[in-house]
From TrEMBL:
GO terms for cellular component: plasma membrane. Its EC number is 1.3.5.1. It comes from the Bacteria. Residues 34-440 form the FAD-dependent oxidoreductase 2 FAD-binding domain. It catalyses: a quinone + succinate = fumarate + a quinol. Gene3D superfamilies: FAD/NAD(P)-binding domain, Fumarate reductase/succinate dehydrogenase flavoprotein-like, C-terminal domain, Succinate dehydrogenase/fumarate reductase flavoprotein, catalytic domain. It is found in: Cell membrane. It is a peripheral membrane protein. Pfam families: FAD_binding_2, Succ_DH_flav_C. This is succinate dehydrogenase.
Length: 636
């Protein structure tokens, strides 16, 4: 049985009740306990810094050459907090209900309320760290709107909010490095989790500079390794982003949840050719002032400024008049796809829509728009050689954020005791769709405010346990499994690169389990991915040897993606409804909106690994809603 460990009491009191009864570790004992944190993005850096500050011995593992290069740096638009600075009706409960509704009622009430409750503290902490949030003329912090809400609760630092928040977390982390409470391991990749007597006790890593396989032991392990949107190959994520840390933990017993809930961001630069390896994100904040449209006439070849106003289809304003261009991401992305599929797409590949600022510039002036978005306009000009002050931007939906991840309880612990998952690596707060500017919030809240209570609550019970070292046979066994897989890849000696299989998988998933899915497309995708996986183990070609070898490392990530891709499709196939980012074409209203089935599917899907050639086992965590009504999610 899945035990979510939700505290007793009224919704608004649950987090306080938990903190008041949590087990503590006294300062003298903290120095005896070791914690491994994998990932140095907002969730990982904030967690490692917080635990180091408390006095625990922390090992921090970073895939990149510096914690500053973690993918949190790429988030642009802002971070939400229910401070009601605009006096526009915001509150903790309103933010909670917006987030529950935005996730299409597929997340836990208790987790989401805690997220909203802790949001105000995060802003105060970030300001104290020196994060340069935008301010009004009088010096007060400024806010802007984001998709899916009708208030202004998003704090921002131009289009660099993720970078600035990460710099704050990085400084906190480096302070603990200087205090000898945190030791950082840059350019290290986790390749396996070590489980002893059912508990997480360490990891196996590969030094990406020397190729050495290493063992690391600890009393608890934290995975803050981000999401797996790069499974589609073309996505907004950095090339290095992958699923291997959480997938290797999954194969050791940690359940995966909501795996098919993949968010496609509506405001991305469109694919421009077949040889691209990445897509570029443009901040959702642009939708505050930009109007989205396509020509009413299909295959219209005129330049955008030559198309008269009455021949433009402002389709979001037409379909969702209440929210307009600030409709949530999943709805906005599907609406764009519908217009593109109807032949009204624009750009070289006819795969984009227009994001037009002419009305905003006319009303507010060019300088005001520059003040809000100048770095984004510069980035667009640098990439496309187009001045977006003079003509509309081209944008398109792209794979972005994964709501799915490792199943965790209220304490952010997985189904493996001692293994915690933070930020995008877990499934916890967003349900079937994430509202914009909640990603930076969740990562920071998990690391700064939740893990420092829940991890010690677990560690308090480990003080009397036997101290595990890397000499334990379980470490030797895990190391051998890792080495055997690496050698297997080298021995295949086929003729196709890991990138070939990644690209092919991405296309199969986009077509079969992308912005929309059908029973037929999912079943075909499962068969095709299994065939591709068989081909991978017969025709993969790795140049070089087992030492410094990025192609060898890439092969391991692609192997994990292939297994994950099958589970994504199986998860989507099992959920015969449409909810949030999971849009089954068979289940929609007459006007093309998602048709949720609360009677049969009001639960979190948690999948248990049963072996490489076996079917995953589905476990269900029922979702109970006592404080919000299960209503049809409408933004019209």
């Amino acid at each position: 049985m899945l035990e979510s460990k939700i505290p007793e009491g009224n919704l608004a009191d649950k987090w306080d009740n938990y903190k008041e009864h949590v087990k503590l570790v006294n300062p003298a004992n903290r120095k005896k306990l070791d914690v491994i944190v994998v990932g140095t993005g907002l969730a990982g850096a904030s967690c490692a810094a917080s635990l180091g500050e408390l006095g625990y011995n922390v090992k921090s593992f970073c895939f990149q050459d510096s914690p500053r290069r973690a993918h949190s740096v790429a988030a642009q638009g802002g971070v939400n907090a229910a401070k009601n600075y605009k006096n526009d009706g915001d509150s903790v409960f309103r933010m909670f209900s917006d987030t529950i509704k935005g996730g299409d009622f597929r997340s836990r009430e208790a987790n989401v309320y805690r997220l909203a409750e802790c949001s105000a503290n995060l802003i105060d902490q970030a300001v104290a760290q020196g994060v340069p949030f935008a301010r009004e003329y009088g010096g007060y912090l400024n806010n802007r709107s984001f998709g899916g809400v009708q208030v202004s609760r998003t704090f921002y630092a131009r289009g660099q909010t993720g970078q600035q928040l990460l710099l704050g977390a990085y400084q906190a982390l480096m302070r603990q490095v200087g205090a000898n409470k945190v030791k950082t391991y840059t350019r290290h990749e986790m390749l396996d989790l070590v489980v002893i007597d059912g508990k997480a006790k360490g990891i196996i890593t590969r030094d990406l500079v020397t190729g050495e396989i290493e063992r690391h032991a600890a009393n608890a392990v934290v995975l803050a390794s981000g999401g797996y949107g790069k499974v589609y190959y073309l996505s907004t994520l950095a090339m290095g982003c992958n699923t291997s840390a959480i997938w290797r933990a999954h194969k050791k017993g940690a359940y995966m949840s909501g795996v098919s809930w993949i968010q496609f961001h509506p405001t991305c630069l469109p694919q421009s050719g077949e040889h691209q390896s990445k897509l570029t994100l443009m901040s959702e904040s642009l939708r505050n002032d930009g109007r989205i449209w396509v020509p009413k006439k299909a295959r219209d070849e005129r330049k955008p400024n030559d198309i008269p106003e009455d021949e433009r289809d402002y389709y979001l304003e037409r379909r969702y008049p209440t929210f307009g261009n600030l409709a949530p991401r999943d709805i906005s992305s599907r609406a764009a796809k519908e217009r593109i599929d109807a032949g009204c797409g624009v750009g070289v590949m006819k795969n984009a829509v227009f994001l037009d600022f002419s009305k905003a510039i006319k009303e507010q002036g060019k300088e005001k728009i520059k003040e809000k978005y100048s770095n984004l306009f510069k980035m667009y000009d640098k990439i496309n050689a187009v001045n977006a002050y003079n003509e509309p931007m081209l944008i398109s939906p792209a794979a972005h954020f994964t709501m799915g991840g490792l199943w965790v309880d209220y304490e952010l612990m997985t189904t493996i005791p001692g293994l915690f998952a933070l930020g995008e690596a877990n499934f916890a707060d967003h349900g079937a769709n994430r509202l914009g500017a909640n990603s930076l919030l969740q990562a920071s809240v998990d690391g700064y405010f939740i893990a420092p209570y829940s991890i010690p609550n677990y560690l308090a019970g480990e003080l009397k346990a036997e101290k595990i070292t890397t000499d334990h046979p379980a470490f030797a066994e895990a190391e051998q499994v890792v080495k055997k897989q690496l050698q297997q890849f080298l021995n295949i000696n086929g003729h196709l690169s890991a990138d070939h299989f990644h690209k092919t998988l991405g296309k199969l998933l986009y077509d079969g389990c992308g912005l929309s899915r059908t029973k037929d497309s999912l079943e075909k995708a499962i068969v095709s991915i299994k065939t591709l996986r068989d081909q991978f183990y017969k025709e993969l070609k790795i140049t070089g040897d087992h030492t410094i070898n990025s192609e060898l490392e890439k092969a391991g990530r692609v192997a994990d993606y292939l297994d994950l891709g099958i589970l994504m499709c199986e998860d989507a196939l099992s959920r015969e409804e449409s909810c949030g980012a999971h849009f089954r074409e068979e289940y929609q209203t007459p006007d093309g909106e998602a048709l949720r089935n609360d009677h049969d599917y009001c639960y979190v899907s948690a999948w248990e690994w049963k072996g490489a050639d076996a079917q995953h086992e589905l476990h269900k965590e029922p979702l109970v809603f006592e404080n919000v009504s299960l209503t049809v999610r409408s933004y019209k």
